Amino acid sequence: MAHVCAAGCDVQRGDVPSGPKLIMFCTLNTHRIDMDKLLGGQIGLEDFIFAHIKGPKKEVDILKSEESLGLTITDNGTGCAFIKRIKEGSLIDQIKMVCVGDHIESINGKNVVGYRHYEVAKLLKALEKGQTFKLQLIEPMKAFEMIEPRLKGGNLSETKISRGRETLRLRSKGPATLEEMPSDVEEKAIKKVDDLLEMYMGIRDIELAATMVEAGRDKKNPDEFAVALDEALGDFAFPDEFVFDVWGAIGDAKEGRF
User: Which parts of the chain are coiled coil (predicted)?
Assistant: First the structure.
């Protein structure tokens, strides 16, 4: 089974924070704020899960001197949008108070707790160039900075991973299910679709990307894929150009073009 630890508190006496609203995001097999290790929709049965909880609040005033802020935003699925990436050399990169992992609590006094990542990204994008705006942020609690992550036993071999071990798939709707890991081809397609989500929507959501790839698993043409995508994710109302690019990414992965 997967093991759960709290990355931002003293767990020597088993004191894991009880309120789910305290949890900002989780990482797999590392206590560090590593956005490449974010918990997505799948958990290996031997993984360690580290819960990063809310820490101190901070406010920062930002002059939007450029159209793009250089932020990539994601969320934890329960109303906590946070910064996943800051583009090097961007406007936000110059503001050292804003960090990867920070939860965006409000924009110009507008509370965005409960908003999905794409809704927060849309609000930030809508801010006029030349406008000064205020962000209220919450940092993840920091702990174990001088400690290396606890290592799993040496029995977990690369061959076990490559063969496709069973994982626990968490879904926003419906029960969790025990499934096989995606194939290497699907993994490549998922990563590419995640890149497309960032390009088109300014978000990263590996679970959403995986759902889109699953929708195209047995489809023979883009029309069938568009119908399946609409049935699974119709609320997103993806533009046709984006859907076509996603279908192309799935096809490229199957053909081994990346």
Answer: none
Token couple for 56: 């101190």
Written as one string, the DSSP assignment of 62-89 is EE--SS---EEEEE-SSS-EEEEEE-TT
Cα–Cα distance measured from residue 34 to residue 18, given in angstroms and rounded to the nearest whole number:
23
3-state secondary structure 140-196: ECCCCCCCCCCCCCCCCCHHHHHHCCEEEECCCCCCCEEEECCCHHHHHHHHHHHHH
Strand 71-75 and strand 81-86: pairing?
antiparallel
Q: Token pair for residue 171? A: 């879904």
pLDDT above 70 covers a percentage of the chain that reads 74
pLDDT, tens digit, 9 for 90 and up, residues 88-138: 999 999 999 999 999 999 999 999 999 989 899 989 989 999 999 999 999
Contact by Cβ (8 Å): 143, 7: yes
3-140 belongs to CATH 1.20.1530.20:
no
- Residue position matching structure tokens 């583009």: 87
What type of residue is 113? V
The DSSP element (H or E) to which 251 belongs, if any, is: helix 240-254
**Least confident residue range of 20-34, 108-122, 134-148:** 134-148
Whether residue 62 contacts residue 135, with contact meaning beta carbons closer than 8 Å, is answered with: yes
- For the chain, what are the domain ranges? 3-140, 182-255
Kindly provide the b/e burial profile for residues 129-165, where b requires at least 16 CB atoms within 10 angstroms of the residue's own CB: eeeebebbbbbbbebbeeeebeeeeeeeeeeeeeeee
Q: By the 8 A CB rule, do 73 and 104 touch?
A: yes
